[in-house]
Amino acid sequence: MRLVAERLSARRGEDLIFRDISFEIGAGEVLVVKGPNGSGKSTLLRVVAGLLARETGKIRLTGEGAQAFETVATACHYLGHHNAMKRELTVAENLRFWKDFAGDSTSGSGIGIDAAAEAVGLGGIVHLPFGYLSAGQQRRMAMAKLLVAWRPVWILDEPTAALDAAAETMFAGLVKAHLGRGGLAIAATHQPLGLGAVAELHMAGFAGENVEAWA
Amino acid sequence: MSEQSLAIRKFSDLANPTRFLALSAAVWPWMAAVTALFFAVGLYLCFSTVGDYQQGETVRIMYIHVPAAWLSMMCYSVMALSALGTLVWRHPLADVSAKTAAPIGACFTFIALITGSLWGKPMWGTWWVWDARLTSVFVLFLMYLGLIALNRAVDDPTRAAKVGAILILVGFVNIPIIKFSVEWWNTLHQPASVIRLDGPTIDPEFLRPLVVMAIAFTLLFFTLHILAMRNEILRRRVATLRRLAARSAGHGSGGPGLAGPGLAAPEEAPR
Amino acid sequence: MTALLLRDLKLSVRAGGGAMIGVLFFMTVVAVIPFGVGPDLNLLARIGPAILWIGALLASLLGLDRLFQAEREDGSLDLILMQETPLVLTVLVKCLAHWIATGLPLVIASPLLALFMNMDAPAMAATMLTLLVGTPAITFIGAAGAAVAVALPRGGLLVSILVLPLAIPVLIFGVSAVYAAVQEPAPFLPPFLFLTALTLVFAVIGPVAAAAALRASTD
């Protein structure tokens, strides 16, 4: 499966944030979006996730298995700045909810809750209320959410912002495993993700005309 | 097909804010003049007709009250149409139209309430009765105020327009329900002793000034609405220019593409 | 969908949930009325159904603003919007969960408060029945208001202002049905059926409008 974006532009409020962004990601590939603050990284990811209306351009899935998805958004996991977990519920209840509510896409299946917690290095504390966890642990559990329901495309907005080096390595492992299963990922980040050589999309912000710079 | 697409193109031409500004600048003085003319004739007729033998001079309140009440409803319909324009056709001017119509509608509704109350004092002996009509208009007034409050609370005009449009349409669907339920409630609680002004027996003597005044009020509404829309467009343009100034300050000289007229008016961008 | 229903119900009874607050508010409002109008039992019996209905209306609106705001604040709303499940259905289920957590307790508490109001058994039963049928309508139309105000920091008050005028028909038919059941000449069924119809109509309008507003207010 391939995720193809053609000449996207988007605005927030009345401001044009970026324009004419094009990229293509194939199965097993990751695209890292880089750029200074305010250059529109988060906006681009939200546009891909279908959370913001795009001004112009197209996003589509092509290739094998793409027909199973009604919209691009339904093929995506989105890990935004917020963890999308309820503090009052236990970790297990949170993960169980997202596993049941999101459900698996046709092309794969998610792993169990305990296994997911194990994979982010926090096995054995799923019975605790989410609010009791430290910020780093909460972020890791939010990542576990990506594992419990299968989605071919991962959209990651500053996934490792609040994490230490060990957690970053752990997360790089998760992404690699996802790519290994034929998944795709698009990540906005300041830090290197530790994924080795990857495709990069540099967003210069709108004021520099050179919006479409490929690495 | 080609005819239709031509019509659509003409329609969207009008949607271009710059064209709208130019067109409205040419039109509004004439509209204002015609409005003034109708008001002059209407007011003359209002005071030249004889008073009602039952209601005396107070009948003249009706010449203000009835047109205002009529406008309070028409204005909401205009807003509902604009809301459809916002949601279905993504019409940039529809946002502006719906937003600016709300305060005008609220004013006319308020006038209808005040004059109704003034007329009620000599007629019913009290400033306010929970008559079905007055109550419905009062609820409508509350809805106008809610919409204005919502518009003021959302800072991003595009988003305000969208959620406002949804609320306008929900209200529009609800208005008949409210009207019906209020009438039901009214017959339940109050014997039908209220003198009704309208009905088939209205004398042409009263009808003539009433019609002229209704036309005058309608024209007044459209004149005010066009002027308010012009203001709103200019206000948004100023806001956009300010934002662009703030942006280019952050990026040094600013991009060459920023100064173009196409971006100075965000409403012109293709949607 | 069951997962969502269960999660929302769990959330409402956990710490910080609003399930019991509504009932408490309802009881407090009704308890305050006699201090305002005096302890005349005949008068209280007469205005009792109306007081209970107004109390239930206000209590239903309480906490409605958090329906989507809480989801938005922790990022859950984004994920809910991305799912294949139609958003209208999701909103409907959330409304049902909210009603079970806040509306149903009001219905259950109403006979107790009816005793305080010196209402007789038929009035009590009629009030309970009309509340059972009518309060979902308030939740449904309130969901539209909650979705419209989802992005606003002080949305709570605004939701009440926006929703109350729209909820007037529910109040009218709810209260008239109760009075019709108690006072002889008026038939009970017409206002009660209108109330039922209102609930069904709002069950469509509310979620559809709320879904549209939620889609419109992402940023």
The helix/strand class of chain C is: mainly alpha
How many strand units of chain C?
0
Task: Note the total helix count of chain C.
Answer: 9
Helix/strand class of chain B: mainly alpha
- Indicate the proportion of strand residues of chain B: under 5%
Radius of gyration of chain C: 18 Å
Family (chain C): Belongs to the CcmB/CycW/HelB family.
GO molecular function, one term (chain C): heme transmembrane transporter activity
Function (chain C): Required for the export of heme to the periplasm for the biogenesis of c-type cytochromes.
GO cellular component, one term (chain C): plasma membrane
Report on the architecture of this protein.
The complex is a heterotrimer of chains A (215), B (271) and C (219). Chain A is of the alpha/beta class and 215 residues long. Chain A is 27% helix and 25% strand. A 6-stranded mixed β-sheet of chain A has the order 5-6-7-3-8-9, with helices on both faces. In chain A, strands 2-1-4 form a 3-stranded antiparallel β-sheet, covered by helices on one side. In chain A, strand 6, helix 5 and strand 7 form a beta-alpha-beta unit. Chain B is mostly helical and 271 residues long. The two termini of chain B are 22 Å apart. Chain C has one domain. Helix content of chain C is 83%, strand content 0%. In chain C, helix 2 packs parallel to helix 6 and helix 3 packs antiparallel against helix 8. The longest helix of chain C has 30 residues. Chains in contact: A-B, A-C, B-C. Chain C: InterPro entries: Cyt_c_biogenesis_CcmB, Cyt_c_CcmB_bac. Chain C: This is Heme exporter protein B. Chain C: It holds the Pfam family CcmB.
